[in-house]
Amino acid sequence: MLAIEQLLVIIALLLLAAVAASKASSRFGVPSLLLFLGLGMLLGADGPGNVYFDDATLSQQVGTVALAFILFSGGLDTDWKAIRPVLGAGLLLANLGVLISTMLFGALALLVFGLSWLEGLLLGAIISSTDAAAVFSVLRMSNVHLRGNLEPLIELESGSNDPIAVFLTIGLTALLIDPAAPLLGLVPLFFWEMLVGAALGLTFGWLMTWLINRVHLDVEGLYPIISIAAVLLTFGAAVWAHGNGFLAVYVAGITMGNQRLVHRQSLARFHDALAWLMQIVMFLTLGLLVFPSQLVAVIGAGLVGALVLTLGIRPLAVFVALAFTRYSPAEKFMISWAGLRGAVPIVLATYPLIAGVEQASFMFNIVFFIVLASVLFQGTTIRRVADLLKLNTGSPQQNHHSLEFIPAVSDQSRVCDLVVPVGTPAAGMTIRDLGLPRNVLVILIERNGDQIVPSGATVIHEDDHLRVLADPTQLHELNARLLAAHQK
Questions:
Q1: Nearest-10 crossing angle of helices 32-43, 4-28
Q2: Domain final position from 344, 371, 388
Q3: Model-wide pTM > 0.90
Q4: What's the pLDDT band for 482 if we cut at 50, 70, 90?
C-alpha cells in the first residue's frame, strides 16, 4: 500500500500529465481522449506503470458518474434555440440510427466474427452509440464551424443516443443470461424509461433553477454545490423510478441552461472544469482496465469492424434515418463522419463482463480497439473532411473565456471570437461604422500578436481576431456584418 502522500503525488502528476496531453492534442490535432486512454494504458499492468487493475464493476461505476456530469455540462451549454429546429431529425438519428447500426453490426458479427445472433446484436448495441464527451471535445477543439445547423444536430445526437444504447445493452445482456425472457417485453419498458427520464429531467431542471434563483446565499461558492446535487438527484431519482438517468441529466442541463439563472457564468465554468476532470478520470480508469497485450488477438477483427462501421454501417444508418430531411448527401456524410465513438461504448462493454456473458472479453477488447481506431481516424480528420465537403464555413467559433471582470450585457451573454475574413468590406471601417447590434461589445482585438483595447474609432483590419461579448443568437448577424458590412 502506498502512503497517502505518495498517492497524492501520483494523482497530481497524472492530472498534470492529462492537462499537458490536452494542450498537445489541440496543437497536433490528436483528440485528447485518445491521449487520456493512452496514459491509462501506460499506467496499467502491460505498461511501465505496472498497476494491475481489472475491476470492471468499479470502472462501470466511475464511467456512469462521469458520463452523468459530462452530459449535464453538455446540456447546460446547449442553446435550445439552436437545437429546436433539428429536434425531430436529432431524435430520429439518435434512436433509429442506433437501431439500424445495432442490426447491421450484429449481422457483421454473425457472419465475420463467429458470434451468435444475440451476441452480435449485443456487440452492435454496445458500439452503436456516438459519444458525447468525444464529440463535444473534438468539435470544440478542432477549430471547425460547420455550415447551417449541423453542429447542433451532431451534438444533440451524441447527447441523446446514449439512453437507447444503454437500454439495448442491458436488455440483450439479460436475454443472453436468461434466454427465456420475453424479447417483446423490452419495447414498452424502453418507452417507459424514455418518458420517465425526460419528465424527471424537465422537472428537476426547473426546480433547481427555481431554487438557485431564489435562495440567497452569502457565499457564491455554494451555488455549484447545489448544481452538483441537482445532477446526482436527477440521475438517482430517474434510475430509482426505472427511467433513464442519462437522458434525465441531459434534459435537466438543457432546462437549466435555457432559463434565467443567477451566477450562470460561474456555474458554466465550474461544470466545464468538472466535465474535463470527469473525462480525465473516466478515460484513465478505462485505459487501466484494458490489457494492450490482449488487443493483439483482435487486431484483424477490430480493423474490419472499424472500417465497416465507419465507411458502411454508420453512413447507411445516417442516410436512412435522415432520408426525409432536407440535408444534402455531403451534409449527411459529414454527420456520419463526426459520429465518434468514445467512452460510452467502453463503459457499455463492461455490462456483459460483469454479467459473465461467454464472449464478454472478446467484446470488450474489440470495442476498445474500434474506439481507438474511430477516435484516431475520424477525430483527427474532421477538419479535413469538412473542408473537402466545403462545409467548414470559417464562421465565428464560440470559445469560453472568463467573464469575471467583464460586464454582462445580458443573462445570455457569451464571449466569442470572430475572425475578420480577407477581402471583406469591413476591413478599413471603424467599429462604429460596422453598425453592430445593440448590446454587443467588442472588448479586445488581437492583431499580429498584439492585443488592442478598442474604441468606436478603432479601424478593423483583415485577419483581425475580435473578442466580442454578445448573445449567442446574435452570432449569425455579427458574422454577416463582417462578411458584408453595411455601408453607412
A1: 140
A2: 388
A3: no
A4: low
